[in-house]
Amino acid sequence: MIGQSVVLAQNELPFPPSVEDFFLPSIVPWGAHNSYWFTKVTALVWVSVGLLIIFFLASYRKPQLVPTRKQWIAESIYGFVRNNIAVDMIGHRGVNFAPYFTTLFCFILMNNLWQIIPGVQLSPNSHIAFPAFLAIISYVMFIWVGIRHHGFGKFMKHSLMPPAPWFMQPLLIPIELFSTFIARPVSLALRLFANMFAGHIILLVFTLGGFLLLNSSSLFLKPVSLLSWAVSIALTFLEALVVVLQAYIFVVLSASYVQGALAEEH
C-alpha cells in the first residue's frame, strides 16, 4: 500500500521509494536540518567551472602566433561555436554573442561528460534545476535582446502577432504567447534534462544489473552479467555522442531564439 514501508529481508530498505530518494545526501552538513545544498551534484558543477577556468587561463596565458596544443584546442572550440553556431544562426551580429554561446557550450559539455566518466557517471544536468537555470538565462537574454533592438511595443507585437488576417489574431495571440514565452524555456530545459536523466538511468540499470546477475544464485544467470556489462560499455560510447549533441542542440536553440528576437519579421 502506498505510504507504508515494507522492510526487505536482510537489507532493510524501505519500499516503495519516495521522492526523497532523488535527493543525494549532503557532503557537508548545512543548516539545522542538514539540507541538500552541497551534494555530489553541486561539487561536480564547481569542479567543472574550476576546470574550464584553469584550462582557458592556461591556454591564453602566453598566446603565440603558432599556437600550442592547449591554445589550439581553446581557439578551435571558440571558432566552432562562433562560426558554426553564432554566425550561421544570427549572421554577422552573432560575433557579439559568441563569448556567451562558447561559455554555455563548454559548461554544458563539461557537466554532461561526467555522465560517462567511470566512478562518477552522473551529470549535474540530470537534475532539472541546472538545465532550468541555464534555460532561464537564455530566455532572459532573448527577451532583453528583442526589447533592446525593437523596443518593448514592437517586440511584443512581432512576438505575439504573426502575419495573418485581423480576425485570426484573437486565436493566434494566445498560441504565440504560450509557444514563445512559456514553451520555449520549458522545452529547452526539459530536452537537456530528459536526455541526461534517461542516459544516467539506462547506464545504471545495465551496470548494476551485471553485478546483480553475477551474484545470482542461478548458474544460468551468471553468464548473462557479461552481456549486461557489454551493453553498458556500448551504451557508454553512444552516450558520449549524446552528451556532445545535447550541448550543441541547447546552444543552437538559444542562438535561434536570439536570431528570432533580432529579426525584423517574425
Key traits:
mainly alpha, globular, 65% helix, 266 residues, 7 helices, disordered N terminus
Strand percentage, roughly? Answer: under 5%
Instruction: Give average pLDDT, whole number.
Output: 80
Q: What's the gyration radius in Å?
A: 23 Å
What is the domain tally?
Answer: 1
Low-confidence stretches: 1-12
Helix content: 55-70%
| SS element count, helices | 7
Q: What string, H for helix and E for strand, traces the elements in order?
A: HHHHHHH
**Biggest sheet architecture:** none
Shape: globular
What is the distance, rounded to the nearest whole angstrom, between the alpha carbons of the first and last residues?
53 Å
- The computed structural class is mainly alpha
Number of strands: 0
